[in-house]
Write the structure tokens for this entry.
Amino acid sequence: MSIFSDNLRYLRVKSGMTQQKIADELRIPRERYAKYEGTTDPPLDCLQKISRYFHVSIDLLLSFDIRRVPYENLIQLEENRILLPITVDSDGENRIEIVGAKAQAGYLAGYGDPEFIESLQRISLPFLTKGKYRAFPVTGDSMPPHKEGSFVVGEYVERISDIVDGKTYILITKNNGMSYKRLYIKGKDGVMAHSDNPIYEPYEVSFSDVLEIWRYACSIATQEFEKDDLGVMSVQDILQGIRQDFSALRTEFGQRKG
């Protein structure tokens, strides 16, 4: 028996279905389906049908023994891409997994692997009760006042349509990896990702490149904010003051000349 056949049998039994019923749903003979619970691997088109029917990604079906994770503790992502493992404490409360610096490098490969998620450190915040949350590290200086080493806690976004223009999100993408940006919808196919630090140019992100989106819920600062730190608003205030001073000088110069 392979991992796939074990998973297939488990999902069928868990759903209370007979082999005949599953075969009818997949529009294949029962004898053919029975072989998939044995030693025969299904062709790709049938594997896709099985994945969509049970709402479990092909990756998990083929590579992970899903009997090790309570089925109820898996969140279905949009378009049946994968199942998102979550963790709860002994009281059934949602725990927040922390993607630390060491885990960050492996997150793209392990974000859908229950074993990887189980290995992350976890915390709980009493004011975050509903929803699925995960904490991601801040890198660089593109989103002040969040400093390098701080964490942004994001709430999982299940549907692209839930994105709100001008709000900040953690993006997990195939090409750019992990980033924290302010998003603006750009048509039906993607978003524009903006940094709050104006020295960084915005860039377009295609929805087809997106693996996960997490809406800003709160942040955890690991460094004290210094009074001399110049945030984006401070820089804007300084530039505005320079413009006003220049305008006043120009007016004064014009008056003297007149």
In short: The longest helix spans residues 232-257. DSSP finds nine helices and eleven strands in the chain. The domain at 1-68 is CATH 1.10.260.40 (434 Repressor (Amino-terminal Domain)).
